[in-house]
Amino acid sequence: QPQLPRDSGDRRFWALLFAVLLLIKALLLLVDHAPMFYLGDSIAYLLTAKNGYIPPDRSFLYGWIIKWVATWTGSLQPLLWTQSLAGACSALLAGYILRQFFGAGRLLAAAAALLCAVEPLQLLLERFVMTEAISLLAFSLFVTAALAYLQRASLRRLALMQLAAIFVVAMRVSFLPMLEAATLLAPLLAWRTISPGTQGRWIDRRRARVGAHLLVSIALFAGLQYTYKWDYSRLIQTALPGAGPEYNYDEGFHILSFVAPIATPQDFPDQAHAAAIFNTPFDLKNPRERDRQRWETGGLVWNLNQVYGPRSARRLAKATAIHAVLRDPLGELRLAWFGYADYWNLEHLAWGMKSDRGGDRELPDNLLQLLRDDYHLEGADLPHRVTLTNVYYFHAWGWFLALLLLPLPMALLVPLLPRPQRPAAFLLFVFASLQIAVIAACSIGPTVRFLHAMTWLGILTLTIFATRLANVLRRSRVAKV
Q: How far apart are CA 147 and CA 138, in angstroms?
C-alpha cells in the first residue's frame, strides 16, 4: 500500500491546499450568501435551535449545531460559513484519501479537492438550512477512518471508524446501510494487514485474529449505535412518552408510503380495520401517488393516525410494510427500479431539481416570523432569488445523471488497481452501490439532494482512474527509455 512521505514539504502542501480551499469557499460565499430553506425539514431544525424541539424523523444534532453557531448571534450567516468550512474539509479529505490510499500525486490530489470544493450540488446545499453539508463531512471522516483501517488494521483504528459512524448516523440515518456494510466488510478486507501474532501455524492464527476483529467491529457498532438510539429516546420523551430506542420514530410511516403500491389490506395486522385504513382517495397502485399517501388527508398514514393514534399507527405501519415486502419481494424490486428509472425522465428530473431547490414555494408565515424574530432576516423573497449557486446547480443535470451510473466504473476500476489498493476501491464500490439502492428504494420522485455523497465519491473515482492511467503511462515511458 502506498505510503505518503512524512516530510515538511508534504505538510506545506496540505496547508497550502487547505488555504486555497478556504479562500475559494469564502469568495463564493461572499458572492452568494443567501440562506435557503427546504419546507418541513428546515423549520424543524430551526425549532430545535430555538426551543429544544426534538424531531421524530430528523437529526436533532443539526438543530443543536444551528444553536451553537448561529442562533446566539441572531444571524444565519455563521451557519453558512460553518457549512462552507465543512465543505472545504470534505474536499481536503478527498485529496488526502487519494494521496494516502491510492498513490495519487500532489497535482491530482489537489485537482480532486478543488473539484469537490466547487461541485454544484455541494455548493447549493452549503447554503441550505439542511444537514447535507455537515453530513458529507461526517461521511468523509468515516470513509477516511475505514480506509486507514484497511491500510493497517488495528483495534484502535477500528474503534475510530465506529466512533465516526456515530457522527454520520446522528446527521443522516440514510447512511446506515453503508455503515453496516463497513462494519462487516472492513475486517474481512483487511485480513492481509491484520497481524498473525506469533510464528507457528500463522494462517490459523491470522484467521482467528480476523474473526476477533470482526466480532469487535460488530460489538462496537451495536453498542455505540444503541447508545445513540437510547440517547435519542431519552431526549424525545416529552414529545413521545415511553418511546424506546430508535433511529427514526416515523420510520414506519415512511416505509409504508415507499411500498404502498404493493401493500394490500391483507398485509395489515388488524384485519378488523384493514378496509378503513386502505380506503383512500389516492390510487394505491400508482407509484407517483406515494407522497400523497404519506402526507395528505385521506392517505394511508392519515387514516392510521385517525384510527389508532400516533404510537400504535407507527408500529402498524412498519409491520404492514414489512409484510408487504416479504410477500412480494419482486414487486418491491420493481418499485425500486421505477424509482431509479424516474431520474432518467428529464421532465421529472427537472421537477425534482426544482423541488429540491424549494420549488419557488412561498415560505410559510410561521417560518417568516421565526426568521424575523431570531435571525433578523426578511425571507419572503428568498424562494424567488436567482443566485450563482442556483444557476450553476440547474445547469449540472448531466453530472447528476452520470452519478447514477457510478457503480459501473467503480466495479471496473477494482481489478485494474494494484492488489494492495483493491480492498479500498471495493469498499468504495460497495458504498456507491448501496447509496444508489437506497436512493432507488426511498425516492418518491427524483430527489437530487440524495446524491450529495455520490458527488464526492464520483470525484474520487474519476481521480483514481486518472492516477492509474498516469502510473501506467509513466511506467511505459520508463520502459521505452
A: 14
Residue 196 has pLDDT above 90, yes or no: no
| Residue 36, beta-bridge partner list | 128
Question: Which residue from 35, 41, 25 is spatially nearest to 123, judged by alpha carbons?
Answer: 25
Provide the strand spans (E) within 117-172: none
Q: Is-contact 422 414, C-beta < 8 A?
A: yes
Greatest CA separation found in the chain? 83
Q: Which residue has the cell 435557503?
A: 36
Contact assessment for residue 260 and residue 66, using Cβ atoms and an 8 Å cutoff: no
**pLDDT of 7 strictly over 50:** no
- DSSP secondary-structure letter at 364? P
Give the pLDDT mean for 211-232.
95
Confidence of residue 442 (pLDDT cuts 50, 70, 90): confident
Neighbours of 2 (CB within 10 A): 14
CA 325 to chain CA centroid, Å, is 24
> 332: closest CA among 173, 436, 252, 440?
440
In one-letter notation, the amino acid at residue 1 is Q
Cα–Cα distances in Å, from 309 out to 54, 96, 296, 305, 323? 19, 50, 16, 5, 21
DSSP letter string over 119-160?
Answer: -HHHHHHTTBSSSHHHHHHHHHHHHHHHHHHHHS--HHHHHH
CA distance linking residue 379 with residue 352, whole number of Å:
23
pTM above threshold 0.85: yes
For the record, the C-alpha cell of 342 comes out as 424516474
Question: How many Cα neighbours within 13 Å face the side chain of 390?
Answer: 20
pLDDT at 232 over 60: yes
Distance CA 449, CA 393 (A): 11
Which amino acid, residue 337? W
- C-alpha grid cell for residue 244? 424506546
Q: How far apart are CA 63 and CA 284, in angstroms?
A: 35
**What number of other Cβ atoms are within 10 A of residue 334's Cβ?**
14
Question: Which among 180, 185, 324, 349 has a CA at the least distance from the CA of 252?
Answer: 324
On whether the CB atoms of residues 458 and 446 are closer than 8 A, the answer is no
When the pLDDT of each residue in the chain is averaged and rounded to a whole number, the result is: 91
Closest C-alpha to 84, from 19, 21, 42:
21
Q: Over range 196-225, report the average pLDDT.
A: 80
| Stretch 380-389: mean pLDDT | 89
User: Average pLDDT in the 220-243 region?
Assistant: 92
Nearest by Cα to 312 from 263, 279, 277, 262: 277
User: What is the rounded average pLDDT of the residues 47-54?
Assistant: 92
